[in-house]
Write a structure and sequence with these properties.
Number of helices: 11
Helix content: 10-25%
CATH architecture of the largest domain: Alpha-Beta Complex
Low-confidence stretches: none
Mean pLDDT: 96
CATH topology of the largest domain: Quinone Oxidoreductase, Chain A, domain 1
CATH class of the largest domain: Alpha Beta
Oligomer: single chain
Structural class: alpha/beta
Order of helices and strands: EEEHEEHEEHHEHEHEHEHEHEHEHE
Strand content: 25-35%
Radius of gyration: 20 Å
């Protein structure tokens, strides 16, 4: 089979041939049909994730078909369409798992980091990592929902916002364009905040935004406060500085939800948070059943990722295109087999 691997930290994405792997007792083998290219794949490419071992095949937005099952797998069947996302397995015995909070498992696994991921023709996944793909979604539609989709969907549905509340989506990239759709379909008064691009305002309104704020030419904090302040700001941008600058747009009892990964600190004014009873929280993607909820909601509400599709052998090109910020809005690899 073909695999796209990274042999060392900051090494190139290189195509290699490997033997098709065999699943263990509680694992399945997936014949991969599509895999999203996510910014978090840089944790593998650059060797940033603690404990990562090389060589490693990246990819954690995976859609395919079960090709083989281990002897102890009962619920999942040959030929079943399945997907695997960021949550690639949990231990079942740490304190978080014992409390049913699998998403914060101390020993959780991530495809493409803990074990080989979806930049390949086949992969092995633990059975607890699987989500079922609805028949209405193609592999290329399902794959980006396994990280970008679930991350925005779960953050919004757990944010505490109610129908009609002002919810701002900060950042109009791969996460943001899905956040706009989910927020609108959940009935929020959805505000898109981005930096002007050709036809971006029209596009975001077509996706469901009631208002577009161009943070390059407008003061986004003032614009949000004209609306009474945001009940929720979903921060998808990978910039702590940018997040710090938008905090003042939260209304009383507002919540700032961080899903954009940044190594920059977020500067939080104490009095702003105290006097308005405001809060700042992070939101991890979620478990496989959350992924399945995301896929189901996307079918019911017609939420779809806007993708640029590349064949597997052009994975390096797709990765660089995504990292450049020029992708509109997600890149997806297909095996075409």
């Amino acid at each position: 089979m073909r695999s796209i691997q990274v042999s060392k930290a900051n090494g190139p994405l290189e195509i290699v041939e490997r033997d098709i792997p065999e699943p263990g007792a509680r694992q399945v083998r997936i014949k991969i049909q599509a895999c999203g290219v996510c910014h978090s794949d840089s944790f593998t490419k650059e060797g940033l994730f603690p404990g990562i071992q090389f060589p490693r095949v990246p990819g954690h937005e995976i859609a395919g078909v079960i090709d083989e099952v281990g002897k102890d797998v009962t619920h999942w069947k040959l030929g079943q369409r399945v997907a695997v996302g960021w949550h690639g397995g949990h231990c079942g015995h740490c304190e978080s798992c014992r409390r049913g909070d699998f998403a914060t498992c101390k020993y959780r696994q991530v495809p493409g980091i803990s074990y080989d991921g979806g930049y390949a023709d086949y992969m092995i996944a633990p059975m607890e990592a699987l989500a079922s793909i609805p028949e209405q979604l193609s592999p290329t539609e399902a794959a980006p929902l396994m990280c970008a989709g679930i991350t925005t969907f779960n953050a919004l549905r757990n944010s505490g916002a109610r129908t009609g509340d002002v919810v701002a989506i900060f950042g109009m990239g791969g996460l943001g364009h899905l956040g706009i759709q989910f927020a609108a379909k959940m009935g929020f008064n959805t505000v898109a905040i981005g930096r002007a691009r050709d036809k971006e305002e029209e596009l975001m309104k077509n996706l469901g935004a009631k208002q577009y704020i161009d943070s390059k030419s407008q003061n986004a904090v003032d614009e949000l406060n004209k609306l009474g302040g945001a009940k929720v700001i979903l921060a998808t941008v990978p910039s702590g500085k940018a997040m710090s600058e938008i905090l003042g747009g939260l209304g009383a009892n507002g919540k700032f939800v961080v899903i954009g990964a940044s190594d920059e600190p977020i500067q939080v004014p104490a009095f702003l948070m105290i006097l308005g009873n405001r809060s700042l929280v992070g939101s991890v993607s979620g478990t496989p059943i959350d992924s399945q909820d995301t896929l189901s909601f996307s079918v019911l509400s017609s939420v779809r990722s806007m993708n640029e599709v590349f064949p597997l052998e052009r994975a390096a090109e797709a990765y660089e295109h995504m990292m450049s910020g020029k992708a509109r809005f997600r890149c997806v690899l297909t095996t075409d087999s």
